[in-house]
Write a structure and sequence with these properties.
about 130 residues; Serine Threonine Protein Phosphatase 5, Tetratricopeptide repeat; about 55% helix; single chain
Length: about 130
């Protein structure tokens, strides 16, 4: 049996996801440093890292990775933070994720599949290490 979260807790969680979407790196990092789970996910399985990558906030991606964010996590649709960064053509976030060990072939669709499908040759080159 799962416990229901109260309205105040849900509002706080939504605010944390908004910080990731908005690239509010300093504020979000402060909450993580104070105990917010770095791998917190929303109702669709999107982690803070996936949201920061999808919204092209490389500084936030880097800060979350430095605090232990799991770059291997996928959302409910099988997407990784790396695939999200590739989709948005955010080279800085792609580089940060690759440096952290993200695998371009993880996820479904993978970052490689995403770059190929959406015709992102610069992203393919980054993923291939060119």
């Amino acid at each position: 049996m799962s416990e229901e979260l109260d309205a105040e807790t849900l509002e706080f969680a939504h605010r944390m996801f908004d910080l990731a979407r908005d690239g509010a790196t300093t504020e979000l990092a402060g909450y993580v440093d104070a105990g917010l789970p770095v791998n917190l996910t929303n109702e669709r399985g999107d982690s803070l890292l996936i949201l920061a990558a999808y919204h092209a906030h490389p500084e936030t991606v880097t800060a979350l990775l430095a605090r232990g964010a799991d770059h291997t996590r996928t959302n409910d649709r099988g997407q990784t933070a790396l695939a999200a960064a590739v989709f948005r053509s955010c080279g800085e976030a792609v580089r940060a994720l690759l440096a952290a060990g993200a695998d371009p072939d993880d996820g479904d669709p993978s970052a490689m599949d995403t770059a190929d499908f959406f015709d992102r040759p610069q992203m393919l080159a980054l993923l291939r290490g060119a």
